[in-house]
Amino acid sequence: MPTSGLEGIGGKRLFCSWSGGKDAYLSLQRAVTAGGKPEVLLCMAHEDGLRSRGHGLPLSLLKRQATALGLRLVTRATTWDDYEETYITALHELRAAGLEGGVFGDIDLEPHREWVERVCAVAGMSCHLPLWLEPRRPLIQELLACGVRSTIVAVDAARLDRRFVGLDLTLDLVAELETLGIDACGEEGEYHTFVTAAPLFSASVPLRWHGSESRDGHWLLRYA
């Protein structure tokens, strides 16, 4: 199945690769606007099944996002070594349930694009990247202009100080990040966000946290 942006997405039953962050949300919103029919948020979890593998978020928070979106959250616990096998198994299950394609929030990392294209093809599903090759600043402006609110929940400790963890994303904050040589969208993992309010949410999903902690080379929120 070919990779595309929004081409052919109208009426298609979809899953969205879900991190809980701004790019995943914006790709989902664009898919809905284009007529796609998302049904599932798919998220890989740590082996303990309690935290998301990408952002270290408690799955309880992702479940609240899914409820606010009216979608089903599907999670799979996995190690990094077994990640691809676990992901493909999940895609086969979704395909057997009638889902036809996946939506991903990648912007320009070619290895990521090649990977999502390949795993979707194995499962016989189309692969859609609504944000692919979009300029960074307009993406942030689009998010903020439509009322999306998100909080930085993790930063790469080699690139950013812990003081950025817990800050709400704003144009001023993005400008500061850019002066530090950070990609405006954090595309290379410099920072990760959690969406707390958005047009597709039926209710806000507040974060409760107290301070930050160091783990695996990152500063992360310590959740209450």
Percent of sequence in beta strands: 25-35%
Which structural class should the secondary elements be placed in? alpha/beta
CATH homologous superfamily grouping of the largest domain: HUPs
Instruction: State the low-pLDDT regions, or none.
Output: none
CATH topology of the largest domain: Rossmann fold
Mean pLDDT: 95
Count of distinct structural domains:
2
Q: What is the C-alpha radius of gyration, as a whole number of Å?
A: 16 Å
Please bin the fraction of helical residues: 25-40%
Written as H for each helix and E for each strand, in order along the chain, the element string is EEHEHEHEHEHEHEEE
Q: What would CATH call the class of the largest domain?
A: Alpha Beta
CATH architecture descriptor name of the largest domain: 3-Layer(aba) Sandwich
Give me the number of helical elements. 6
Main sheet summary: 6 strands, parallel
End-to-end gap: 43 Å
Q: How many strand units?
A: 10
Sheet with the most strands: spatial strand order: 1-6-5-2-3-4
What gross morphology would you assign? Answer: globular
Describe what you observe in this structure.
The model has no long low-confidence stretch (mean pLDDT 95). Strand 5 (101-103), helix 4 (110-122) and strand 6 (126-128) form a beta-alpha-beta unit. The longest helix is centred in the middle third of the chain and has 14 residues, at 83-96. By secondary structure, this protein is an alpha/beta fold. The chain is built from 6 helices and 10 strands. The N and C termini lie far apart (43 Å).
